[in-house]
Design a protein that fits this description.
Length: 236
């Protein structure tokens, strides 16, 4: 209960001492911190706080020379997960990192089980949500997002031509871990009776494309899903 939650959120190091410039950066979310602590207590039952301090210091180090125009918590949570992966390579894996990102990312979608993108009203609402997301991206100047105008007879389509998470992974030689950040997009769509069709991503291509349709749409028959040699879920 509450006692357990306090135990999980206990700070191994005062975050004010990390030297992060909070005028242009932010900390990882509380949920991200809890998820990392949970895994550390599994892998290092006697040294979890010590290891979390190392993760915190790695996070601060990563931000020292990193761009200062990042926007939302999700990007910073990804950098925190990369920090965990960097510090704990001896015990963790890309598969575990994907589980962690899924726990952080999918909560909102699990609450939307009533949504069915096969139905026109939900399809239109989803398109509106993506247009709102684009406006936030334009405001934050972190992701560069384009959304195709709505067509009731076609799948929803949008794309990113710039992704700070992929940029970060390239800069720090962490591309091997990027599937953990990208693949949960597929799980999210499956929770709302939709499917994602993706041919490229910003980690390995010049854009990341999202074609979204209902899970009963004939469009899916032409675009079989597979896992590429790096571990990314993709479509033909």
């Amino acid at each position: 209960g509450a006692c357990c939650e306090n135990f999980l959120t206990e700070e191994a190091m005062d975050e004010k001492e990390l030297g992060i410039d909070l005028t242009c950066h932010t900390l990882y979310s509380k949920n991200c911190k809890n998820e990392i602590m949970k895994r550390l207590r599994q892998h290092y039952p006697d040294r979890a706080d010590e290891m979390f301090t190392k993760v915190q210091l790695q996070y601060a180090e990563y931000l020292k020379d990193w761009r200062t125009d990042l926007g939302g918590k999700k990007t910073y949570d990804c950098i925190a997960l990369f920090s965990y992966y960097t510090v704990c390579r001896e015990v963790t894996s890309v598969a575990e990192l994907e589980q962690m990102e899924s726990e952080l990312f999918l909560g909102a979608f699990r609450k939307m089980k009533f949504v069915d993108v096969n139905k026109p009203v939900f399809k239109r609402l989803m398109h509106m949500a993506f247009c709102k997301a684009k406006s936030r991206c334009d405001q934050w100047n972190d992701y560069v997002m384009n959304v195709r105008p709505f067509d009731k007879n076609e799948p929803i389509y949008y794309e990113f031509t710039a992704c700070p998470v992929a940029e970060f992974a390239k800069k720090h030689d962490l591309l091997e871990a990027m599937p953990a950040m990208c693949n949960p997009d597929y799980y999210a769509m499956e929770l709302i009776h939709a499917r994602l069709v993706r041919r490229g991503n910003c980690a390995t291509d010049d854009h990341c494309d999202y074609t979204i349709c209902g899970d009963r749409d004939d469009f899916l028959k032409e675009h079989e899903e597979f896992v590429d040699e790096m571990g990314f879920r993709r479509n033909k």
